[in-house]
Write a structure and sequence with these properties.
With 148 residues, the protein is of the alpha+beta class. It is 51% helix and 12% strand. It is built from 5 helices and 6 strands; from the N terminus they run αβββαββαααβ. Helix 2 (52-72) crosses helix 3 and helix 3 (92-112) crosses helix 4 (119-132). It is globular. The mean pLDDT is 91.
Length: 148
């Protein structure tokens, strides 16, 4: 079935547990308990392969690590509404979002490739596209909505 209030669910869980929450599916919901971001990036083939959830965990962790490293720099980073990484402030929501978008946009690029014929060939193409995904890809293809 479909959740009646995914936004309320993720926000409540994040506030209760004092953590980031990512609910993945056709629409992904990411929150820090205040801001809730909905993303419709991704491809159905992600659900047809084993390990895509684990791989998503790795890309989100990578985004979180990048946010921590960025906070050590003096340059301001990506701004998303009222959230920004600047001068030592770590914005984990933006880091997690970059990891999510890296995976979902790579999946879209992989699925469009001529050499992808199904889940088996998709896995190899996804690995290639994930290794090649760039900030420009994320800027050009991100499908986001700040829903609260």
């Amino acid at each position: 079935g479909q959740l009646k209030d995914p936004v309320g669910l993720v926000r409540h869980l994040a506030r209760t547990e004092r953590c980031l929450v990512l609910l993945s599916g056709k629409t992904d919901y990411l929150t820090d308990g205040d801001t809730v971001i909905a993303s419709t990036n991704g491809h159905p083939l992600l659900g047809a392969i084993t390990g895509s959830g684990c791989a998503l965990g790795v890309t989100v962790a990578t985004g979180l690590a990048a946010a921590c490293n960025k906070a050590k720099d003096e340059e301001p980073a990506i701004s998303l509404g009222n959230t920004v990484v600047a001068h030592g402030k770590v914005d984990l929501l933006v880091g997690a979002l970059m990891g999510l978008l890296g995976m979902t946009i790579a999946s879209e690029k992989a699925a469009r490739r001529d050499d992808v014929k199904g889940p088996g060939t998709f896995i190899a193409a996804l690995q290639d596209e994930l290794a090649a995904v760039s900030p420009e890809d994320i800027r050009a293809h991100a499908q986001l909505e700040i829903v609260s």
